[in-house]
């Protein structure tokens, strides 16, 4: 069985890491390069930089932030926010990203998924889906959770995979920043519908939540921010907890026996 990945998310605004609740009420959490350096040492598997206001403000994710983070880590780096064109993706990758994450742009122009997959390989193309419960369905939202679309999360994930996406970054808007646990129903629904990895995001508050999303939620990876940023829990402790419960993870070299 492949190891489950633990991913740290750096939501960046104006060059600083921020975190909110349900995509609102952002508060500062530190310098992205400094946080990336710490996570690299602690044994995080990947880092995602999301420029949370890039799409709204119609600008690219900032190249200097990407470069600063890339210089601090020796692990995969994914960048999202303001990736609207092939040129935007190229700029992010040239700045140091290994993968790019598409959200609003992919919904507006699904063909860009295939274009980027053909150019860089599917492993470099992540489609981010922000979903919220609406009655008996999971509605897809864009523009940093501000605008509802007619698409459902499961159907859109399936189409994104068919068009060449290598991964789905699935965020529950309802759970974002609440620390009440991942939405395992949402995650399992999408994971069961596609044959590519699904990264669960939104709601991490305890080690138990990660175990739940890897088992009941069928997630291949879990992304979190607050639980790591504010030094409440270490990545190493989380991985030891998961390994003790027979959930396969890549342990830091210092803890292997």
If you had to describe this structure to a student in words, what would you say it looks like?
Strands 1-4-5-6-7-10-11-12 form an eight-stranded parallel barrel, surrounded by seven helices. With 257 residues, it is of the alpha/beta class. The chain has helices spanning 32-42, 63-70, 86-95, 104-108, 111-120, 153-162, 184-193, 207-215, 226-229, 235-244, and strands spanning 5-13, 16-21, 24-30, 46-51, 77-80, 99-102, 125-134, 137-142, 147-152, 167-172, 198-201, 221-224. 34% of the residues lie in helices and 28% in strands. The protein is built from ten helices and twelve strands. It is globular and about 40 Å long.
Write the layout of secondary structure elements.
Blueprint: E1 5-13, E2 16-21, E3 24-30, H1 32-42, E4 46-51, H2 63-70, E5 77-80, H3 86-95, E6 99-102, H4 104-108, H5 111-120, E7 125-134, E8 137-142, E9 147-152, H6 153-162, E10 167-172, H7 184-193, E11 198-201, H8 207-215, E12 221-224, H9 226-229, H10 235-244
Helix pairs in contact: 1-2, 6-7
Concise synopsis of the structure shown:
This protein has 257 residues and is α/β, with parallel strands linked by helices. It has helices at 32-42, 63-70, 86-95, 104-108, 111-120, 153-162, 184-193, 207-215, 226-229, 235-244; strands at residues 5-13, 16-21, 24-30, 46-51, 77-80, 99-102, 125-134, 137-142, 147-152, 167-172, 198-201, 221-224.
> Over all CA atoms, what is the radius of gyration?
17 Å
* Beta strand count: 12
Specify the overall morphology.
globular
Per DSSP, the total helix count is 10
Number of domains: 1
> CATH top level?
Alpha Beta
Distance between the termini: 19 Å
| Weakly predicted, low-confidence segments | none
Quote the beta fraction.
Answer: 25-35%
The CATH superfamily title: Aldolase class I
Helix amount? 25-40%
CATH topology: TIM Barrel
Order of helices and strands: EEEHEHEHEHHEEEHEHEHEHH
Let me know the average pLDDT. Answer: 89
The order of strands across the largest sheet is 1-4-5-6-7-10-11-12
